[in-house]
Design goal:
- The protein is α/β, with parallel strands linked by helices and 404 residues long.
- It folds into 2 domains: 13-211 and 334-399, Crotonobetainyl-coa:carnitine coa-transferase, domain 1 (Rossmann fold, 3-Layer(aba) Sandwich), CATH 3.40.50; 242-319, formyl-coa transferase, domain 3 (2-Layer Sandwich).
- The chain has 18 helices and 12 strands.
- It has a 7-stranded mixed sheet, with helices on both faces. Strands 7-8-9 form a 3-stranded antiparallel sheet, covered by helices on one side. Strands 10-11 form a two-stranded antiparallel sheet.
Amino acid sequence: MSGRGKGPLAGVRILDLTSVLMGPYATQIFADLGADVIKVESPDGDTTRYLPPGHDAARGGMFMNVNRGKRSLVLDLKQPAGRAALLKLAEGADIFIHSMRAQAIARLGLDYDALRAANPRIIYANLYGFGRTGPYRDYPAYDDIVQAASGIADLQARLSQGEPTYLATVVADKVAGLTGAYAVMAALFSRERDGLGQEIEVPMFETLVSFATVEHLCGSLFVPPLGPPEYPRATSEARRPYKTGDGHIAVMIYNDKHWRAFFHAIGDPDWSKDPIFASMRSRTENIGAVLAKVAEVMEQRTTGEWMGVLRAAQIPAMPIASLTDLLDDPHLVETGFWEECESDAGPLRFPGIPTRFSGTPGAIGDPGPALGADSHAILVEAGLAQAEIDALVGSGAVRLAERA
């Protein structure tokens, strides 16, 4: 089912030295869009391989999804022969991307200068926790750490009785991965015009601060501040799914047109004349009271009844769905979002590529590969003779996949 060679990035080759989730998510996007992604792993493999569940102890479900469409090459980069093999591969690569701290990649002798010497056109992307010119540069970072440091966990405290909490998704990893993907693609576009490679830095911390302060800068945009750095609607304790007569529902009565339609749909009650509902400004300044009143009204009908009323009034609304619900969601089924396939790991279901290209559509590739599954083929493509490959394997600098 391999999708390699199909899509707008067909013909692009990527050396992927990332692990866990941030970097692999970025390179999963490249693979979905047709790039040849060579996942370079240590002899122990990406730690995410071993997260259950999975039929294979070294290929759990999360690993297989986020590393779909890639090929696995095992190199011991601490050995000079392993480093030399990687630099040989870099001669024919377009992109080199890693997720190590700056000191760690420098110790391996694989900083930008080393890769640029091998290939002046290469695009070299650093994905790590903190920007390398600041005092946090050597700190280790995972998603929870960056959610805490970036203000995300504190913002969540507004919605959870004052206790900081993490989002129930690895938002720091994924936002940084997306940022890394668009940064690399921008560099590829630039190289098409001037022929020059370049180095990119994508630090998780700075990326998440930028992400959080899209809306949460508000009054602190001004110097001196005109107010706190929070968007009050988003941090109101009353901002939560509304309880209905038999469940919960998400409703977004946002602009003046929505509010007029809502009031009309429920019979223009007396309380709708309260000045706090008059404008975007008055609603924002009294957001707690506004949302509390809506919550009171929502309990008076069932979710199904409200969906009928709100759809007719063209007010954005959806019932609360669980992750299990999404597996059979009628919209996702109708659009063909879920892709089921047979693989060497048995029948699988992948989330589809969310973007559509009319001329160069991407394709979901094979599930994350066995450790070292493609080592031999990749080294042959790089021009190494069989004797050289045998020597690398004999020294332990290269590992081949174990035979079933």
